[in-house]
Write a structure and sequence with these properties.
Mean pLDDT: 96
Helix content: 25-40%
Bound molecules: adenosine-5'-triphosphate
Order of helices and strands: EEEHEHHHEEEHHHEHHEEHE
Distance between the termini: 17 Å
Largest sheet: 7 strands, mixed
Oligomer: single chain
Number of helices: 10
């Protein structure tokens, strides 16, 4: 096999709590993750000449070792002494620096795809172990689905799939570096913690309303006061009939959960008409694990 095309799916957090910080600076988290059907296309092609080449539709992204997809490929090329070169094409659609794990999803796709293309024989667990050295969300992006993520995000417990629903995603036109958001979180005096167990109970009883009503993201306490547009998008979604609306990850992307596609589409229109965001997508959750 000389060429392989993969879908690198993004995620939203139905819940995000931070329990503390480890000595190495990493945060201990408790997050409910959900894969959504919004994806980057990742194409891997073997080349005769050695080296990794990256092409992407977004000209502001790095195409060297600063691209996490490059680092994923480099890791396997070095470990397995692969002599071919590799061309990686990233057709990006997941909003960048947005709290949707776009980079981690690309890295996961490269690890998964190279394992298949070069017949490396690595199990899912072995891929996840390599993934965590690239980024805390990479193991989850290898696993996908509805998952409780603990530790630094690498301790993964699968949850039952989320009942059928529609996800509206809106990324306001601002970018927030994950590191800065976590630093500001560390400086907060008081923190209100979300009800992660409430979300899990809702999921386990297939009660999407309870799950949506329990959603919470501790990092909103940093981002909402600083960027009012995040609150405005949440309110627009809730007023338009969302069962719940929240910022994903370290933001600034906001998502809403809807029980009908047409209600989600109407809410999307309101967000566009009010000029709150131009990157607006209506999509589904995706619960199919990789085979
Ligand atoms: P997370 O939800 O895991 O915090 P994120 O959505 O905040 O992820 P990404 O989109 O993964 O963030 O990327 C953050 C930064 O990483 C960007 O500023 C970008 O320059 C850099 N980057 C490196 N490789 C990639 C990639 N393949 N796709 C997107 N960004 C990348």
């Amino acid at each position: 096999m000389d060429k392989l095309e993969l879908k690198a799916l993004g995620k939203i957090n139905l819940g995000l709590d931070i329990l503390g910080q480890l000595e190495n600076g990493y945060h201990q988290v408790r997050m409910v993750m959900q894969t959504v059907y919004l994806y980057d296309r990742v194409i891997l092609e073997k080349k005769k000449t050695p080296g990794i080449g990256i092409e992407t539709n977004l000209n502001f992204l790095p195409v060297n070792e600063n691209n996490i997809a490059y680092r994923a490929a480099d890791l396997l090329i070095k470990e397995f002494g692969l002599s071919d070169g590799l061309r990686i094409t990233l057709d990006k659609h997941i909003p960048v620096a947005a709290g949707m794990a776009g980079g981690s999803a690309d890295a996961a796709a490269v690890l998964f795809g190279m394992n298949r293309m070069y017949e490396l024989g690595l199990s899912e667990e072995e891929l996840k172990k390599r993934g965590v050295s690239l980024g805390a969300d990479v193991p989850y992006c290898i696993m996908r689905g509805t998952v409780l993520a603990e530790g630094i995000g690498e301790r993964l417990t699968p949850l039952p799939p989320l009942p059928r629903c529609y996800i509206l995603i809106a990324k306001p036109p601002l970018s927030a570096s994950t590191e800065t958001v976590y630093d500001k979180f560390d400086a907060l005096d008081e923190v209100e913690h979300p009800d992660i167990d409430g979300i899990i109970r809702g999921i386990e009883t297939s009660d999407i309303r309870q799950a949506a009503a329990s959603m919470g993201n501790v990092l909103e306490q940093v981002m909402l006061p600083e960027y009012p547009v995040i609150g405005e998008i949440k309110k627009t979604m809730l007023d338009a009939g969302a069962l719940g609306a929240m910022m994903s990850g370290s933001g600034p992307t906001v998502f809403g959960i809807f029980d009908s596609r047409s209600t989600a589409k109407k809410a999307a229109l309101k967000i566009r008409n009010r000029n709150l965001s131009r990157q607006v997508y209506v999509t589904n959750v995706h619960n199919v694990r990789r085979k």
